[in-house]
Amino acid sequence: MAVRHFARQAVVLLTPVFFSGRHDSGVNPQQKIQIDGWVYDAGGSPLPGVNVAAFQEGVPSSRPADTGPDGRYELSLDSGRTVSKIEYTRSDRDLEVVAHLSGSRDHRISKILYRPGEPRSVVATEETLDSYEHALLFALAAPFRARPAILAEFQAREYAPKLARLPLPTGIEESARQFLRRRHEQLIGDYSAILSSLR
To answer: Against a cut of 0.85, is the pTM above it?
Structure first.
């Protein structure tokens, strides 16, 4: 856990303000909450065409939104229902997921999406591994009748191949690299197992 703690401290110093995480702005009196933000590529340019989908209490909520030319998206969700996850996907990018958000507050969340195999920092690598882990846990918790749709989604979005191509950072302490490598290998094995069980 020390590696994760150190890495997340580092991002506070190195990440520009416009890449910040979420911002809570209070309860929405109209019984709706708003989730908005921007999506960028690794160079900091706006990334259009990213599909942003929200799930509340395990169920898809409202219509997904696509980011516009400026990389911005906006979702309107029912208030009072926990947001299980928000999924950011584009065919040429690695998956990014934000999980377990309050259903009683607005959120502003901006993300960076990387190409498969694109180098990234320790923090960014951990966040991408978190995203694949959230997607895996979400699939495991889904009812049996939903398994064919989940299998089709995993295959269409190439989650397992993209995860396998995820590069680990270089130029870091060996203990940190070993930690990330073990976690990466475990997730690859978990994805292989769940894909086999879903078939």
So the answer is: no
